[in-house]
Amino acid sequence: MKIVPLGTEALLVDFGHVISPAVNGLAISLARQVEQADLPGVRFCAPAYASVTVGFDPRVTTFDTLAQKVKSLVPLVSEVAGATERPTWRIPVCYHERYAPDLSDVLQHTGLEWEELIALHSGRSYRVYMLGFLPGFTYLGSVDARLVMPRKAQPRTRVPAGSVGIAGEQTGIYPVQAPGGWQLIGRTPVRTFDPESSEPFLIQPGDHVRFEPVAPSEFEALANAVVAGTYTLASDG
Amino acid sequence: MAEVITLQFMKPGMQTLVQDLGRAGCQAFGVPVGGALDRGAAITANRLVGNPPTSPLLEIALAGPDIAVHDACTVAITGGATRPMYNSQPLPLGKPVSLEAGGVLTFAYPQEGSHGYLAVGGEWEVSGWLGSVSPLLYSPEVTPGSRPVRGSFLKIHRRPSTFDVRPVTLTTDYPDHLEIAVVPGPELNRLPATSIQVLFSERFTVGRHINRMGIRLEESVRRASVSKPFISSGVVPGTVQLTRSGKPVILLADAQTTGGYPRILQVITPELDRLAQVRPGNTLSFRQMTHERATELTVAYLERYQFPVP
Fold first, then answer.
1. Each residue of A149-184: pLDDT tens digit?
2. Contacting B residues, span 147-186, partner chain A, CB-CB under 8 Å
3. B196 contact partners, CB below 8 Å, separation of at least 6
4. Chain B: nearest CA to A10, how far in angstroms?
5. Using the beta-carbon criterion (under 8 Å), do A132 and B294 form an inter-chain contact?
6. Longest dimension (CA), chain B
7. How far is residue B29 from each of residues A1, A73, B138, B206, B306, measured CA to CA in Å?
8. What distance in Å separates the CA atoms of residue A48 and residue B257, rounded to the nearest whole number?
C-alpha cells in the first residue's frame, strides 16, 4: 500500500494493481473508516477497485497530516473486513434480443448458445467492486471466463437505462440512458439509481448482485410496477 | 418593487446552465462534482451582486441567451468575454449593474474565452439535489430548473445582502496560448523519459470537442499505447489522463469520478479557471511545479475567493 498525492486537494491510497475481492474489501473498508473518522478537512472519500481517493481542503489539513491519519486507520481495516454483512441484490434481467442489442455479436464471439449465456451470466453472484462512470453505475465482477468480451469498437451514443452489459471481465447496469461501449446482453426494468429516493444509490460498493432471468412479458409487468412505484428491489441478507 | 425577480428566456443560447460550486461528497457513488467551470469568475460575479460564493448563477457557453427582464434587478457579468447588452446598449463587465424592468438582456458572440457568468442579486428559486443545482449530464430531470429552455422562467427572491464583500480580482485576458502549472500524477513515472520530455516541452493543441467533461489535446505524447492495462481508479477535475491513442485528456468538473487511463499529470486548482476559457485551436504547454508551491497557490486561491470550508 502506498499513499500519494493526486494534486493538491486529494490523496490516493493505492493497494496495487490487482482486482480481487480481498483487496477491494480493504479499499471499501478503509473508505468507510475514513468517513466515520470524520477527519478535519476531508471533502469526500471514494473507493475504487484497489484504491481510495480522499479529497481534502488544503486550508484545513495537509497531505502529510492526512496521509498519516489515513495510514493509521489501515490496521483497523483487517478487523472490520468481512465483519459487516452486505446484502445480495436480486436484479431481474430480460435477456431477450429485444433488450439485448449485442446478443448476436456476443453469441458469435463466445460461441455460446443463448441459453448457455443466460445460465452463465445469471449463475453466479457478482461483487460490486465500485461505482463510477455514471451516478449509480455498478462495476460488477467477475464474469465466467467464457463470457469475457472486449468493449465495442464504436461506443453507442445512447444506451437505454437498465441495460446490462459486459466489458472485459466486468458486467454492469446502466442506471440512466447514456453513451457507452459495453456489450449489451439484456435489460432490467429496475432502476438502480433513484434520485427522488432518500437513498438514491441502493446498491453500494461491497454489496453483491445476482441476476434473475425474466421473460419479456414479465419484464413489461415489472417495468409497469417500477413506474407505479409498487416494486421494491429484493435482497438477501 | 416586486419581491420576486422574474427573468424569462426568449432563447436559451448554445449551452446556458444554472450552476453553483457543485456537489462534493458523492464521488463514491459515481456522481461528478459538477459546478461552474471558471469558479473564480462565478464567485466574483456573485460577490459583485452581494450573493454568497455558493449561490446559483448562469453559466453561458459561447453563444448566449436572450433574457427578458420582467423586474428591476442588479446583475454582474464576468468570465469569458461575453459581450452583454441591455436593450442593445453595451453593459460593462465585472461591475454590478442595475437593470430596469422590461428590457431584454442579450449576449453578442464572445471574441475570446468560452464561458461567461451572469449573477443576479437575490436568492434563486432552483431545486437542487444533494446540495447543488448543478445539472447531471445524463439525468437532466434531477435538477429540472438548471437547463433553461425557450420560454422558461427564473425566479429570484430579493433579500438583503449579508455576504461580506471583499475587493474582487477580475480576469479579462484570455490568450491563445496558456502555460499550465501541473504537478506529477500518480502514474507519470510509468512513461519513458523521452515521453516525459515531450510532455513538458511540446505545445498541445486543444481539440475540436471540448465540453464540461474534459479537454482533449491533439498531439500524442507517445505513439505506442501504454502497454499495461490499468485498473479504474479515482480521478478529480484537473487530472490529465493519457488515453490509449497517447493523447492527453484534461478532466473538468463534469468528468466521471473514476478512470481507466494512467493519470500522468494533475493541473493545479487555480489553473482550472483558465482552462475553463480555452477554445478549440488554442495551445497549452505544461509547466511542472513542486507540490509545496502548488499547495501554496491552491490555498491562496481558495482563500481569495472564500470557498466554503468543509
1. 998 988 899 999 999 999 999 999 999 999 999 999
2. 183, 185-186
3. B188
4. 8
5. no
6. 66
7. 23, 22, 15, 30, 28
8. 10
pLDDT in tens, B107-141: 988 788 999 999 999 999 999 999 999 999 899 88
The reply to whether ipTM tops 0.90 is yes
Q: Confirm or reject contact between B300 and chain A (CB < 8 A).
A: no
Residues of chain B with Cβ-Cβ distance to A130 below 8 Å are 232, 258
Q: Are A49 and A132 in contact (CB under 8 A)?
A: no
* pTM of this structure: 0.94
* Nearest residue, CB atoms, B30 vs list A8, A14, A137: A137
The more confident residue out of B261 and A54 is A54
Given this model, what pLDDT does residue B109 score? 82
CA of A170 to nearest chain B CA: how many angstroms apart?
12
CB-based contact A151:A181 (threshold 8 Å): yes
Q: Which residue of chain B is at minimal alpha-carbon distance from A4? A: B186
